[in-house]
Amino acid sequence: MERESFENEATAAFMNDHFVCIKVDREERPDVDQVYMDACQAITGGGGWPLNAFLLPDGRPFYAGTYYPPERKYNRPSWTELLEYLSRTYAEERDQVIAQAEQLVTNLRSGADRLLQIEGESEAEEDEGMMEQLRAGYDAARGGFGGAPKFPQSQALELFLTNGLITGNNHDIYSAGHAMRAMLGGGIYDQIGGGFSRYTVDANWRVPHFEKMLYDNALLLRLLAKLQMVTPDPRYLQAIAETTDWLKAEMALSDGGYRAALDADSEGVEGKYYVWDYEELEALFPPETVELVADFFGITAQGNWEEEHTNIPYRPGPLPAVTDMPTDVAVAKIADARRTLAEVRRQRIPPGADDKLILQWNALLVSAWTWCYRATGHKDYLQLATKLYRDLVKSLLHDGKWHRSLTNGRLGAPAFLDDHAAIAEAALDLSEVTFELDYALIDARRHVDIVLQEFSDEANLMFYLRRPEGSELPVATKDFYDNALPSGNSQMAANLYRLGRLTEESTYSDRAQRMLSAIRGAIRRYPTSFAGWGQTYLLMRQPERELVITGDDAKAAAREFLSEYRPGLLIVAAEEAREGVPMLQNRYLSQLRYFLCENRTCRLPVDTEEAVRKLLN
Questions:
Q1: Is 412 helix (H, G, I), strand (E, B) or coil?
Q2: Most buried residue, 147, 223, 255, 361, by CB count within 10 Å?
Q3: Measured between alpha carbons, how far is 130 from 476 in angstroms, rounded to an integer?
């Protein structure tokens, strides 16, 4: 719409004459986007972007919609027709417009809490019902959920993995891996440069919308790491390494942290940076290599992206299916060719970049790299995680207050619920892989306490997206959905549960329990939209197990258990006395000892790794 309408001089003049036009970056102000997206969905029955909302001077919406063409088509009025109608209506029927805005705001204020009124069932029925719903929506032929357009929905795949490990359901574990392997073989994964696009326009993961978002890649890295811990696969390791290399090469900001996104377009053409013509291969490689590379990446003379008559690299089959060469020779040639293609691509004009440093999205990447460290044992991933965490503190914590974003040296709004929840989770994850308890007991706890004190709703149950005090918006919004990003409320429930276990303070654990009890009906009915909640719900239904290791070299001993994904197992290690931590009280010994506990009941300590593994298994 910017190109079609807003840059048209006559249209712009009408807009400026009759409206006060405000453009909002929804990534910097998710609260603004949330309020008016809710309004759009209430008015039209659907939402999406671009989002165009029309407000009274006090900010109350009276109309909202998405895309409007410059001329009437798609069974929609043109943008100018809509502007003229709303301007005339506001001038001639203002009382009616104000009444409509008031009714809409009243509905919005009660909208989110309707999810808490969905009746639940017994806990056993909840568990199985949730998973039955999740399985029913899975695309067993192509992997993932739903048809076109197709989004990764990594949190729902993690729910499969978590349930499979807890219950022993190998089919759920398989589904999580099946979807990931389908993505890694498709065009949604950048076969040349690494990293994932936001979604594909088809159901086969072949044709991406070429935009790359930081949060998608963080969440998919976490899923890759967990899959590698459960069902090791060289393809997972390769994708972890390639995506990390891409993040460092193309997403890193000069002052620390990682940019929000790369655009789909370069030189005004979607995907131009990423696609290839067959003739380009012929100019780069000898005939034998051209045939190998073309077969491996599905590149044809006619083009595999029929709409644009060019090629999006993907993997039509495993290596033996596309070549008669010895496997080791073919693998080496493919790797060399990929490096050549990547170098050639770097000479092209790159896509535009969104250089915002966003706290929530970067915190998700901190967490992802802690899981990559667990999955691989490579300290590089831990170093990346700890450096990014320090960079976020340096860039976004000023005068004791956290901020949502930093753009060209300008700090954004105060941190939202999602930001505090994500950085608290990052601190908890760092604590669990470094065994430095201050990450959890000081840093994570500080964020959780801020949220408890400043973001709680009137019932002290759920949390507002933004502190209600001082808001210029007509509605204090609460978001419960785990969509492309985890909701701040679901992350907070997980943080409260984890912190409650570590501190044994009921303030945290009770709040988590009440949150999950309130929303469990919605989780059971719509698991793909509440997958983060679902994972915490499953964990809270299991016996609580802790492995406490104390004494000389306790941290080194604890690291031996990091590569095994056991959902819900809390590992704490201390090489000196720390009586302020309940599970370490009266447990420090100079000799190495392992204490395995379940539901606060502990077995006799053992002194060898082999002995504790027998107890764990």
A1: coil
A2: 361
A3: 30
**Phi/psi class of residue 481: alpha, beta or left (left: φ > 0; alpha: ψ in -120 to 50)?**
beta
* CA distances to 288, 325, 593 from 328, in Å: 16, 8, 46
Q: Which pair of tokens denotes residue 195?
A: 């990293």
Residues 6+ away with beta carbon under 8 Å from 99: none
The two structure tokens encoding residue 395? 């860039």
Contact by Cβ (8 Å): 567, 525: no
CA distance 574 to 451: 29
| Neighbouring C-beta atoms of residue 586, cutoff 10 Å | 7
Is residue 42 within 8 Å of residue 107, measured between CB atoms?
yes
The distance in angstroms from the start CA to the end CA of the chain is: 58
Whole-angstrom Cα distance, residue 227 to residue 237? 10
Give CA–CA dist 428/445, Å, rounded: 9
Pairing of strands 405-407, 353-358: antiparallel
In the chain, the amino acid numbered 141 is A
Residues 324-371: tens digit of each pLDDT: 788 888 889 999 999 999 999 999 999 999 999 999 999 999 999 999
Strand, helix or coil for residue 62: strand
User: pLDDT per residue over 39-89, tens digit each?
Assistant: 988 888 777 788 999 999 999 999 999 989 999 887 789 999 999 999 999
Q: What CA–CA distance (Å, rounded) separates 433 from 435?
A: 6
13 membership: H or E segment, kind and range: helix 9-18
Residue 473 three-state SS: coil
DSSP letters spanning 488-519: HHHHHHHHHHHHHHHH--HHHHHHHHHHHHHH
C-alpha 587/C-alpha 577 separation (Å) is 8
- The verdict on whether omega for the bond into residue 50 sits within 30 degrees of 0, i.e. cis, is yes
Residue-wise pLDDT for 400-439, tens only, equals 999 999 999 999 999 999 999 999 999 999 999 999 999 9
Instruction: Enter the tokens of residue 240.
Output: 């972890």
Looking up tokens 């993997």, which residue turns up?
Answer: 315
pTM, 2 dp: 0.93
Q: Which two tokens stand for residue 472?
A: 């210029």
Residue with tokens 């891409």: 246
Query: Letter for the amino acid at 581?
Result: V
* 493: nearest Cα among 522, 525, 472: 522
Dihedral of alpha carbons 496, 501, 502, 505, sign: positive
- DSSP code of residue 407: E
- Positive or negative CA dihedral for 216, 431, 452, 526? positive
What's the DSSP call for residue 252?
B
Phi and psi of 296, rounded to 5°? -65, -40
Residue 134, number of CB atoms within 10 A of its CB: 22
| Helix (H) or strand (E) run with residue 578 in it | none
Residue 343 burial class via C-beta count within 10 angstroms: exposed 0-12, middle 13-18, buried 19 and up: exposed
